[in-house]
Design brief:
Length: 441
RNA sequence: GCGGGGAUAGCCUAGCGGUAGGGCGACGGCCUGCUAAGCCGUUAUCCGAAAGGAUUCGAGGGUUCGAAUCCCUCUCCCCGCGCCA
């Protein structure tokens, strides 16, 4: 949520922000107008309440002295009617103002490139040596801006979709029977590979001072609204029927809400949490995309980085969580590029967002595996999380980033590390997985 | 699920129809050669340029001129009993 004072004092900043996001700048003026009406009526209301409080005190004193107070009593009754009338106006106007305010997206960081959609995202860093099927070379050179090492391969690797079904490492057909499309039964070596990935990512973060947390997988409306934006409720969030509970789409949600309504001591910052949880997503609006396999699914597991920090440190920590995620993909020997998400593709909550996209040799393109956001004070405001500072309370900044989303990372491993008659397991996973190869032939 | 006890500002606690009091902690100041002690002040939210005012006793209703206090509904926590992976 935005600071109402920012809208009052610098409305042109917020209008500019709306334009960059291809949204209507007039929303700002609607809020300003409602805010003005609210404040006017609030002043009237408070004057009436003050009058009433003084009368009530008079009655109290008169009764103590044994005097009659029936005329004051009637006056208060009359005041109560006026108060109720104005209260209704104040509440109604404030409700309208806040409902618009809650829909306002975060102010974009100055580093966010302007753009209409995902085609305008800006790749700026490249790592690793990609295996590129000859037919994909033009696309690869375009998407890697020619700044990435590669080797040409003469055969396209098996797609993860074909491979997992053929060698019984997952069963999406039967999952479709019992749960619908975009679900899967994970089987055999992939089950352990998933656990190995989670342990590897968790240990990587614990070493860097993150506290491991397994959060609740459901949240109340209040907590969920604070952690995410309203459009998510239609597009991604599952609701539990007849309960005030929503399935989390990422452990970012319960980790953001973890300190809801709290005041954090300044000296305990930064708070660094490594969340581990399943993620549930409706994937509405993704019809026809990645319909097979386990790349885009309604349920997957993820290890997530989440940080609460002092506002002046969030830029530093944004780079840090990105670096942590990059280290993981480097150790997994998965070639990737990092992109700076543009204003049209960034979503309402983030102020700045980086994605890591791994080169997928079977698909012949870069695919998103990590998303790292600096949310600034947007979630903290919505969740009423403050920090007690030397000179008063303030809102902390929050940041989140994927460490490992298991399904997508397994897809990346299957496509990149196919080697003869199996899949090579990258070094850091071996001690968790127990072997260095998944034999498939 | 049943019975009993709770929820008061960052924390603890009093108040149980008549302007929410005390303690701890934190911060600022005074006093000290320094530290401690001691003393004074500040320590939730909102409106207001300020003076000031309004709100706030788990949440929501009700009774009353007036509710932390009385009544109703709900949430959460603690102690027993029951059920249970």
């Amino acid at each position: 949520m935005l600071d109402i004072n920012l809208i009052r004092n610098n409305p042109e900043v917020v209008r500019e922000n709306q334009k960059k996001r291809n949204l209507d700048p007039a929303d700002v003026d609607k809020i300003l107008e409602l805010d003005r009406i609210w404040r006017e009526n609030l002043q009237v209301l408070e004057r009436l309440r003050n009058l009433k409080n003084r009368k009530v005190l008079e009655i109290s004193l008169k009764l103590k002295k044994g005097e009659d107070a029936s005329s004051e009593r009637d006056e208060v009754k009359k005041l109560n009617d006026d108060i109720e009338r104005v209260e209704n106006i104040v509440e109604e106007v404030k409700r309208k103002r806040d409902s618009l305010l809650w829909k306002m997206p975060n102010i974009l960081d100055e580093d966010v490139p302007y753009g209409k959609d995902e085609n305008d995202n800006v790749p700026f860093r490249f790592w690793g040596r990609a295996k590129v099927f000859r037919e994909d070379l033009d696309n690869f050179l375009r998407d890697s801006k020619g700044s990435m090492e590669y080797e040409i391969i003469e055969d396209r690797p098996l797609s993860h979709t074909d491979l997992i079904e053929k060698y019984d490492l997952a069963d999406t057909l039967r999952a479709g029977k019992v749960a619908g499309s975009r679900f899967y039964y994970l089987k055999r070596d992939l089950v352990k590979l998933e656990l190995a990935l989670e342990m590897f990512a968790l240990d990587h973060l614990v070493e860097k001072g993150f506290i491991p947390v397994e959060p609740p997988f459901m949240l109340t409306r209040r907590a969920m609204e604070g952690a995410t934006d309203l459009s998510s409720f239609e597009e991604t969030i599952y609701k539990v029927e007849n309960e005030d509970l929503y399935l989390i789409a990422t452990s970012e949600h319960p980790l953001a809400a973890y300190h809801m309504d709290e005041i954090i001591e300044e000296n305990s910052l930064p708070l660094k949490y490594a969340g581990i949880s399943p993620c549930f997503r409706k994937e509405a609006g993704a019809h026809g995309k990645d319909t097979k396999g386990i790349f885009r699914v309604h349920q997957f597991n993820k290890v997530e980085q989440f940080i609460y920090c002092h506002p002046e440190e969030s830029r530093k920590f944004h780079e840090e969580i990105l670096r942590n995620a990059e280290e993981i993909y480097q150790k997994l020997e998965l070639p990737y590029r990092v992109i700076n998400i543009c204003s049209g593709d960034i979503g309402n909550v983030a102020s700045k967002k980086y994605d890591i996209e791994v080169w997928m040799p079977a698909q012949g393109k870069f695919r998103e595996v990590v998303s790292a956001s600096n949310v600034k004070d947007y979630q903290a405001r919505r969740l009423n999380i403050r920090v007690r500072g030397r000179y008063g309370n303030y809102y902390p900044h929050t940041l989140n980033s994927t460490a490992v989303a298991t399904t997508r990372t397994m897809v990346a491993i299957i496509e990149n590390h196919q080697d003869g008659d199996g899949i090579r397991i990258p070094d850091p996973l071996v001690k968790y997985f127990g072997k260095d190869f998944i034999k498939i032939k």
